[in-house]
Amino acid sequence: MTESTDAISALTVEHPSPGKKYYPPFQPTADLEKEAKEYVSMYPEGKELSAVLPIIHMIQGKFGYICPESMSWIAQQCKCTEIHVAGIVSFYPGIRTRCPGKWHIRVCHTIACALSGGEELIGYICEKLGIDPKELSGDEPMGISPDGLWSIEPVECLANCGFGPNLMVNDTLYSQMDKEKVDKLLAEYAEKA
Ligand code: FES
C-alpha cells in the first residue's frame, strides 16, 4: 500500500473524541438529502463531483467533522466514489475527520504570528486546557481537552498578519493576543458552555 492510500484508509476509521457529546451524530435524513440536492443542482449534469466540497462544509458545520459514514453518503449524493471524497477531505487542512471540542481554537503559527508569540500561546493554551501538545503533530493536528469542551489546532495564516498573534474560537477572530487576554477569553467561553 502506498503512503497516499494509507492516508486515505485512515480516513475510513471512526476516531474517538470526547468532543462528540457536543455535536449531533451524523444522520442521513430527508432534509439533509434535500439540502445536498440543492448543492448538486448548482452544477451541470455530469459535474456532480463539484458539489463535494460545499456539501463537506455543510456536513462539517452541522456535525463538527466528516465521519466515515458521512463520506459514503456524500459520495452517493455526488455520484462519485468514496475515494474521491476521501481525496478532497485529506487535501484541505480545514476539513476534519475527528470531532473537535465545542469551542475549537485555531491559533495561527505562520511566521508573523509565530514571531509575535503565537507558538508560545499554543503551548500555554494546551497547558491550561489539559491538552497533550503531542496531539498537535501528525496528519491531522488537533488536541482535544479530556472533557471535550475545547480543541486546539495550529493553522496557517488567518489573513490578519499585522495584528498578531491571531487566533480564532470557532468562527470569531481575536487579534494581538497574549496570555492575559487568552485567560480572559477562555473564561468567557467556559461560561457560555
Ligand atoms: S501570519 Fe498570522 S495571520 Fe498571517
Report on this structure.
The protein is α+β, with helices and mostly antiparallel strands and 193 residues long. Helix content is 44%, strand content 10%. The chain has 2 domains: 89 residues, Arc Repressor Mutant, subunit A (Orthogonal Bundle); 90 residues, Glutaredoxin. It has 7 helices and 5 strands. Strand 4 and strand 5 form a beta hairpin. The N and C termini lie far apart (44 Å). The structure holds FE2/S2 (inorganic) cluster (FES).
Summarize the structure.
The chain is of the alpha+beta class and 193 residues long. It contains seven helices and five strands; from the N terminus they run αααααβαββββα.
Give the helix proportion (percent range).
40-55%
Ranges where pLDDT stays below 50 over 5 or more residues in a row are none
Output the strand order for the largest sheet: 2-3-1-4-5
Helices and strands, in N-to-C order? HHHHHEHEEEEH
Integer count of domains: 2
Question: What is the CATH first-level class name of the largest domain?
Answer: Alpha Beta
